[in-house]
Amino acid sequence: MLVLSLFAGVMLDAAFGEPRRAHPLVGFGRLVRAIENAGHADGRLRGVLAWSLAVAPIVAATAYLQLILMARSPWAGSAFGAVVLYLCIGLRSLDEHAVPVACALRDGDLQAARDAVARIVSRDTAVLDAERVAAAATESVLENGNDAVFGALFWYVALGPAGAVGYRLANTLDAMWGYRTPRYERFGWAAARIDDVLNWLPARLTALTYAVLGDTAAAWRCWRAQAPQWDSPNAGPVMAAGAGALRVRLGGAAPYHGRWEPRPELGEGAAPDAESIERAQRLVGRGAMLWLATIAFGAWLWRAL
After folding, report:
1. C-alpha distances in Å from residue 42, one per residue of 31, 149, 185, 193, 250
2. Which residues on neighbouring strands pair with residue 270, listed in sequence order?
3. Whether the Cβ atoms of residue 303 and residue 1 lie closer than 8 Å to each other
4. How far apart are CA 166 and CA 156, in angstroms?
5. Under a CB-based contact definition with an 8 Å cutoff, are residues 190 and 44 in contact?
6. Is 259 exposed, middle or buried (0-12, 13-18, 19+ CB in 10 A)?
7. How, if at all, do strands 265-267 and 259-261 pair?
8. What Rg, from alpha-carbon coordinates, does the chain have?
9. In terms of C-beta density within 10 A (0-12 exposed, 13-18 middle, 19 or more buried), how is residue 33 classed?
10. How far apart are CA 256 and CA 132, in angstroms?
11. Could you give the dihedral angle defined by the CA atoms of residues 199, 202, 204 and 209, in that order, rounded to the nearest 10 degrees?
12. Are 207 and 238 in contact (CB under 8 A)?
């Protein structure tokens, strides 16, 4: 039943993409803002409490519903799990956001490419040239392959629908609170650290997936040499291995809040362009298929033994 619900959830995402209206994460975002406005304080303990209030009730409710439905009918439980997974992953969404960037670059429309990439990255896109636009989009696809696809699949397999929900909410809270700014440096500490912990193993499995499906030697070389230089313990392996697998140069200085911030170089080989974005999309897509096939084979082997 796990494999069936897993495949069904991925197929729902492929067929429909993210809900255009009333996405649960939009409602969760409003809840998070309300909790933050009511309880923000410059302290780690307050951040831990806020994180718990935002995540724990939803995860508990998901686990409870899953238990109730499975007790009534395994088919109902599997259908519920498939819908939950569909709401937690974003494979099609990655493509929908990356394709306009690649198309604009191919058409030579730099301003349209900047506008499109601004929807998926936080850096100042108005000052990016075509190469840096392509790099930003390629990095986003590689990193979000872990955050929006492989991480959710991992925790769904590990802990069922509640695991996928907990992971997705933790990832969302990290995106909202996990900044090293005066407001969030202490209050958002828990959100950042919990996301780091939950992503530690999925990120390395994602990096391994990229290495297996791309230029393995280059991916492994870049992973070992470049990932430790990256600030994020999880984004480093993912993007270094992905850049190496694609044989493309990423990383480097990027503009944030009006100034260029230094970042380590990632990958090796050619400069990024529209094709780099498309190759990253295909790499993530093939990786998702590999994960599904591996999980299905593992489930068959478990039953056979």
Report:
1. 20, 33, 8, 16, 35
2. 248
3. no
4. 10
5. yes
6. exposed
7. unpaired
8. 19
9. exposed
10. 13
11. -150
12. yes
Q: What is the pLDDT of residues 111-163, one digit of tens each?
A: 999 999 999 998 999 999 999 999 999 999 999 999 999 999 999 999 999 99
Q: In this structure, are residues 162 and 63 in contact, taking their beta carbons and an 8 Å threshold?
A: yes
In eight-state DSSP terms, residue 228 is G
Quick check: 274 and 159 in contact, CB under 8 A?
no
Contacts of 184 (CB under 8 A, 6+ apart): 177, 178
Closest CA to 91 of 283, 244, 297, 294: 283
| First-last CA distance in the chain | 17
Which residue type occupies 187?
Answer: F
Contact of 78 with 9, CB cutoff 8 Å: no
Distance between CA atoms of residues 266 and 12, nearest Å = 34
Name the one residue in this structure whose structure tokens are 């909790």. Answer: 35
255 DSSP β-pair partners: 260
Give residues with Cβ within 8 angstroms of 36, minimum separation 6: 50, 177, 187
Q: What is the pLDDT of residues 186-217, one digit of tens each?
A: 999 999 999 999 999 999 999 999 999 999 99
166's CB contacts (< 8 A; 6+ apart) are 55, 59, 155, 159, 198
Name the pTM for this structure. 0.95
- Residue 271 is given by DSSP the state P
Q: What is the pLDDT of residues 78-113, one digit of tens each?
A: 999 999 999 999 999 999 999 999 999 999 999 999
Q: Over the chain, what is the mean pLDDT?
A: 94
Asked if residue 305 has pLDDT above 80, the reply is no
Beta strands 254-256 and 249-251 are: unpaired
For residues 212 and 218, give the distance between their C-alpha atoms in angstroms, rounded to a whole number. 11
Interatomic CA distance for residues 85 and 125, integer angstroms: 32
